[in-house]
């Protein structure tokens, strides 16, 4: 022990730092470190003054994060200007249809008129309460055909009307199959299962393909190639296989109320518009949820349409505009569709908070027809 003390005193005289171990009977008798504050101060100086590794920040341009889209002038042809205005209707032009040749255009209007009521009461003949138990819009009884076929005669035949298909309620939509032998009609009624009928002209036969309709049916459409039938309700689109008679897929639109629907000519893509200003593009091979949601309209979307030959689709809204988009669909399933808005077409006058009610493309030319609440039909080319 003495030798260690002598050696330690010698080391202290030379200036070297060495500590002599000491023994304590308990831990609480160990004194505090005398150079604690000085050591902490030197540590702070080392952290403050000593050089460190410098990391370079990566400067990312925000424009590089935006996907590169082609310019609209490189995606021509598409309609750009208003060419013609068809006048003659006195009310809302609800729907339009272009003939396969493109030379004829059919339109449907809605006329609203009122007349002052005049009553001439006569003495009461009899009284009864049996009419109170019957429903005004009651469905046909069992054994009675809800749809009747009849051939037209006389003046109707002279006007070109050959056949009449009578429905139990008001028909809101009619769509044709590509082969021309089948057509479907829609009568929206949430309290009835007689909302959709499929008619066959060659056999003059009608059938109701659904026993129960889950929701209010808005519109229907046939698949252009396969035996599929699309039924759009308020919030979803159901796809049925007509041969197997079963539902194959259910598309969730993520919108409050679907207004219109269109099927791509290839049959693998669906676009639908809604009253909450949304336009949804579905890729049937990808998912049951929208591949892309477009919100470029400010008001309700009333009509959507695909072009049969060109990669174009259009939508009409109550804001009075028709927006034309370029939608390229690739044969490679690994490559997603390219959707680019190319032109906003204006011309319709907003009437009673309604704008464009329907849009249709020309079958062979890059033209689009639109009908509106201002009682006009406009052609953009």
From TrEMBL:
Keywords of this entry: Nucleus, Repeat, Ribosome biogenesis, rRNA processing, WD repeat
A molecular function (GO) term: ribonucleoprotein complex binding
Cellular component terms (Gene Ontology): PeBoW complex; preribosome, large subunit precursor
Annotated ranges, domain BOP1 N-terminal: 1-79
SMART domains referenced in this protein's UniProt entry, alphabetically: BOP1NT, WD40
GO biological process, one term: maturation of LSU-rRNA from tricistronic rRNA transcript (SSU-rRNA, 5.8S rRNA, LSU-rRNA)
Subcellular location: Nucleus, Nucleolus
SUPFAM superfamilies: WD40 repeat-like (SSF50978)
UniProt WD repeat ranges: 349-381
Predominant cellular place of this UniProt entry's protein: nucleus
Gene3D superfamilies: YVTN repeat-like/Quinoprotein amine dehydrogenase (2.130.10.10)
This protein's name: BOP1 N-terminal domain-containing protein
Provenance organism: Takifugu bimaculatus
